[in-house]
Write a structure and sequence with these properties.
This protein has 261 residues and is α/β, with parallel strands linked by helices. The chain has helices at 9-24, 55-104, 107-129, 144-154, 166-172, 184-192, 223-230, 233-237; strands at 29-30, 39-40, 44-48, 157-162, 196-199, 209-212, 214-221, 244-247. β1 (29-30) and β2 (39-40) form a beta hairpin. It is elongated.
Length: 261
Amino acid sequence: YSTIREQPVALSASCLIALYSSIFQGNHNLTIRDSWRGEPLCLWIASLAASGSGKTLILNAAKKPLEVCMNEDMTTYNIEYDAYRAQLDSMVGRRQVLINEMKGAEPNERGEIIDTIKEVTEDMQILRAQAPPNPQYLCDDITVNAFRKMWSRTKGVAAGLSSESILITNIIGGRFDRAGDGDQSDIIRKAWDGDYIKTHRVTDTEDDWDDRAYLSLLQMVQPSILKIFAKNKAAIERGTFQRFLWFWPKVVPIGEREMPE
């Protein structure tokens, strides 16, 4: 595909490496030395390419096989999830009935009802832990909040593969360090290391996630952005800049390519 588009193989390679990272990140660890703990295969890749370099077409071509597999897996997932939701909804309804009974019960009858409510609640928690993971872990919305929602749906796996540089731009602008947003930059750094992250339920159909979270990234960055990022003292001191693997292939702009006869 790089040959057809007259682009360096490194540009396609950066997309494929990010893609493989997203597949393996939650399933395999890499141990370089016996004395080291296993490192998750979460890669953050920044591929530098100017506008008009065809990076979006190359990334879309690289993602296509994975998207086809995910769509096929969604058929099985939908069946499993419908069964899970039906069972969970039944438990939620039973608990609500018990709560209503407790409100109208005599004081000497409430103890037994409360014990039953606790049992149903515990069963709900056990069932939530057995929820089938959503196989669709690619995020179109490259934001921390989108990643947190994805972790709860996929049981800890998310990937942001984008031909834009939205996430890096937000890091440079200090978007994740503003008061009121929580330390979102710390959250994504933890996900690079496969660390424990707590998410909060957004809706009744989404579960909390309180376990290891993994995040693979691919950002297509214009060279001018790199210069700004490299001057961001906070990003360097906190290790955000160093977590990225940088690709800078020699890209031929569209207007300068040789057209076949």
